[in-house]
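Obj.: predict assembly geometry.
Materials: sequence records (below).
Method: joint structure prediction, all chains together.
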Amino acid sequence: GENVEQHPSTLSVQEGDSAVIKCTYSDSASNYFPWYKQELGKRPQLIIDIRSNVGEKKDQRIAVTLNKTAKHFSLHITETQPEDSAVYFCAAEGYSTLTFGKGTMLLVSP
Amino acid sequence: DTEVTQTPKHLVMGMTNKKSLKCEQHMGHRAMYWYKQKAKKPPELMFVYSYEKLSINESVPSRFSPECPNSSLLNLHLHALQPEDSALYLCASSQEGAANYGYTFGSGTRLTVV
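Observations (raw structure tokens):
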């Protein structure tokens, strides 16, 4: 089945800095890659996604890039704010389900 | 309605109890999922229903029994659970019976087995 690796496991930045989280996947047939943000005690919420026919997608301060050849995709958050602090999960679609990475805890200090 | 509703939000049960978790969505999604999430870990897939039929069972112990009475409802029946089953149980749904439209997650049921 699909295997998703996510790095780093923890990321600490100062408010206003950029943050980058990277994921790799194993199944070359996967074609959908969402990112979820999960605040403490809450449900995962979809923040951005990308499909394999697109190399980059941007939504305000958040962007995702995809390199299908290398089988990796990344989340970029610019001008980070304290409310961006959460656990971020990447995922890849395979066999009609999503496989999640292990998560990155992002801490944004004021 | 763009939400997945899960009840109850919290549940404490003894190891000999029988209880059920409920999930409901009215978005017309044809795939529904149960995930288990331990603290600081990613969600782990348990079951997938596609068009009301069980399509994936990730080798989950029989003390967890899923049921899909109709296209809007998904239940998870619990019996003789162990303390290590304590976790956040998340229900999700997606369009067209496939994952490549993204999931909408419910807020979860936080289960404690004593």
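Conclusions so far: The first strand of chain A starts at residue 4 and ends at 7.
To do: check interface contacts against the pulldown list.
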